[in-house]
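Teaching soon. Got one?

===
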Amino acid sequence: NLWRPVCIDHIGRLWLGTYGMGLLCCEIDRLTLFRADHGLPSNQVRCVTRDSEGTLWAGTTGGLARQKQSSFETMDGSDKLLPFEITSIARGNEGMLWVGTRSGRVYVGSGGSFATCAEVPPAVAQSISALVVDPDGKVWFSGSHLDVLGYFLDAQRLVIIQDARHPAHIADMAVDPQGLVWVASSNVSQW
């Protein structure tokens, strides 16, 4: 099994997502494994983060889940929380959570209520491979099948960038302390 996403929660525990075993919580004196029988929609965890209130969110191949005490929940009373294959999560400004999916859609919301953002054209991004938020509040995304970057000015306005410096699959992105957006692909670049 591959160790995928990593997150440190509000009390210092390390969370490691796996592609098949579930979500591992690492504390100083013990390890706890959370799986589908603990409420995760799938044992294939693609991303994990915590929101501004400290709630842990896990994106899996079966949907989005949030931690509730010693388990996870995927239901909001009427339906699953985004029952799509989740590929990326980013914590944005004002407590908003941005969620990317394998289908190329991006959602934004808080507290378990999410709305669809402006559509990323399918010819541009067949799947959202990474999301990051820069200090100015721009939500950067990358498409997994093409050398595409873009950012959301807000939930309904986006800018698409195609750049020859990224000839291969964009695997991930990060924002450094100076606010530069770094892109991990076969070439490393900054924006």
User: Anything to note?
Assistant: Residues 149 and 161 are 5 Å apart (CA to CA).
